[in-house]
Amino acid sequence: MARLLKGLPVAQAMGERLAVRVEALAKQGIIPTLAIIRVGERSDDLAYERGACKRCGALGIEVRKITLAANCAQHELMDAIMTVNADDSIHGCLMLRPLPSTLDEVTACAALDPAKDVDCATAGSLYGVFAGEPVGFPPCTAEACMELIEHYGYDLEGADVCVVGRSLVIGRPVSMMLQARNATVTMCHTRTRDLLAKCRAADVLVVAAGHIGTVGGDAVRPGQVVVDVGINWDAEEKRLVGDVDFEAVRDVVDAVTPVPGGVGSVTTAVLAKHVVEAAESYLARR
User: Is 282 in contact with 275 (CB distance < 8 Å)?
Assistant: First the structure.
């Protein structure tokens, strides 16, 4: 049976390290502060906001919530972003997305200060990920994959990694981050020819396609590490499941992340880390 790569131990280890850094900042008169901009009351936004507030609160990171109505005007959102940008006591900003279709998300993201963009909403942050430059921050979920793999001691140097998914939120940035660790990355998606063979050939398989059952038992082999990033609601079984058929792969592969309780558990810890890093950068510039 596969080793379960649970996210909670990773988040706890990160929290212990972050607590030391938060204390050091406090001694310098800096309280790391996160602003959360939420438009409307989508259930997934509210769930992530609650998780972020809980994680940050436990570490001594202040959270300020800026909530707007689902039918707010573009200028109201832009005013909120400008307020965050201008407030030196706010070090990081999480704008929950996707925004309602009535709003121009591209313009809103472009307006956010990349130095405060702790979840890769801006083009500047994406540039930083793809160019390997210290600009902004990578997406929290993509970095959570990296934290989890490294916490459990899997060496990416020279490893063959298959990433299934090509979004700017996970697939493409995590591919760049894996290459920065000297992994050899094959990027795939649901229309890739002979996807099963490409998945089986990998040492590490990262699945972020956004579809239930993208990877089943026929797509894996013994010795692999499988990181399931998917979060899907299975209406038939009435439970959260990933993109990987967990029951079909757990007796085949060497290690696999559970859903829930895997990558998602690490994401808010990465968010907290980014806020602390943003506060440290602010202190260095002050």
Answer: no
Q: Which residue has the tokens 């579809």?
A: 211
Q: Given this model, what pLDDT does residue 95 score? A: 98
Can you read off the two tokens belonging to residue 189? 């998606």
Rounded Cα distance between 35 and 72, Å, is: 18
Picking from 91, 68, 27, the residue whose alpha carbon sits closest to that of residue 272 is 91
* Rounded Cα distance, 67 and 17, in Å: 31
Specify the CATH class of 140-264 in words. alpha beta
pLDDT tier at 39, thresholds 50, 70, 90: very high
Percent of the chain with pLDDT over 70: 100
> Nearest 5°: phi and psi at 229?
-95, -15
How far is residue 125's CA from residue 121's CA, in Å, rounded to a whole number? 7
Rounded average pLDDT over 158-173? 97
Residue ranges, comma separated, of all CATH 3.40.50.720 domains in the chain are 140-264
Asked if residue 271 lies in contact with residue 242, where contact means CB atoms within 8 angstroms, the answer is no
The confidence score (pLDDT) of residue 237 equals: 83
SS3 content of the chain, % helix, strand, coil (to 5): 45, 15, 40
pTM: 0.95
pLDDT at residue number 111: 97
Domain with CATH 3.40.50.10860 in the chain: 29-116
The distance from CA 97 to its chain's CA centroid, rounded to whole angstroms, is: 13
CA gap 29, 103 in Å, rounded:
37
Across residues 71-81, what is the average pLDDT? 98
Q: How many CA atoms lie within 13 A of 152 on its CB side?
A: 24
Q: If you classify domain 29-116 with CATH, what class do you get?
A: alpha beta
CA distance 281 to 275: 10
